[in-house]
Amino acid sequence: MIEDKELLADIQDAIANCMKCGNCMEVCPVYKELNLESQVARGKLALIEAVLTGKVDISAGFDKRMAMCLSCKACADKCPCGVKADELILRGRQAAVKARGLHPIKKNIFKLLSNRKLFDFTLRMAGLFGPLQMKKLPRRMAVIARFPVPGLDRKRVLAPFAATPLLGQFPTTVKVSNPKMKVAFFAGCTINYVYTDIGQSVINVLTANDVEVILPALQHCCGTPVYMAGDVEMARAFAKHNIETFAQTGADYIVAACGSCAEAFKLEYPEMFHDDPALYEQAKKLAATAYEISEFLTDVLHFRTDNLGTVNSTVTVHDPCHMARGLKVTRQPREILKAIPGLKLVEMKEPTRCCGAGGSFSLANYEISRKINDRKIADIRTTNADTVATSCGSCRMHITDGLVQNSMQQECFHVVQLLDKAYQAGTNKK
Predict the structure, then answer these.
(1) I need a surface site. Which of 73, 75, 242, 280 has the fewest CB within 10 A?
(2) What is the pTM of this model?
């Protein structure tokens, strides 16, 4: 077996740049709840350093501590030395996978995920038979388990799987009369199988702006869940598949309605193939055309505002972590909301603070993620908004759970859904 320290040797200099100042303690959502040194970036980097010096091995405890991170990037954003702690912690996870392998549960889940046809069939079945297990709550897109489910907290509110995935609801190409351009829509797993209403709004908004929408039938998971778990090779396989699939569309641009998916195309795919010249160039070419939907609408398309109808609502915005600190996209969602007649935008105190979802983090650590989310919900409460807007399906689900748990009636939508509503209102008033 390769010695543990050899797995991390190439990041030794980057680890040494951490001056242990503790600024990360101020912003780490997990640390604020647990108050443990091992759960903040400084502590995790010290643990990696201990592996490098041979003081500790990559053990089950090391693996567990590396996993106790939301990958929210707040530590890197706050670091006065410019240490990208989130990336170094990810390298710690990758080293743990190489040394110990994936946790059996993750291994089986990722094995299913890697089989596109079987994954699609499984989630279609979940959509068809989900109502037998999940009880619908009296609010939009919210269900709760009827019976105990292993690994799922009984009181947790989820969103139902769709009876028909988004890619099954539309043709491969959604045409318009006089297209300004062609855009390939990367739906991602959450929108394709759960929040199809977000995907429908993306298509409605693009076609309302004379954009032809291509929905590649062979698109698959962006690979971010696998990549964040530390399995680089499987993530590269997903990335290669999507790069080749979208390169064949001939689209002018690629859009995603999820910050994490957009970040995969724009930032992670080129990085994954830095050692493969051909795929690196292909990934870079696609990255230059890839945008999160609100960024695309404002900065590239310059969406129509002359035909927007009134949406009487007071809205506050939650910025997903990979949007705010990964893509650096926060202005664009607000520009869209401010353009909608009748809509009042009220900012919460900390709109970029993590909601506690963190992809699978909230499944594995629900009680901690719930406490983190309670802080977000308390911030939302102070705004007196009737609607929460965000740009991430995972955030939408976790915030909805928090609203229900805190007996609040606000609804949570994707930003593009509110724009779609305004276009529909504009059409109806004619």
Answers:
(1) 280
(2) 0.95
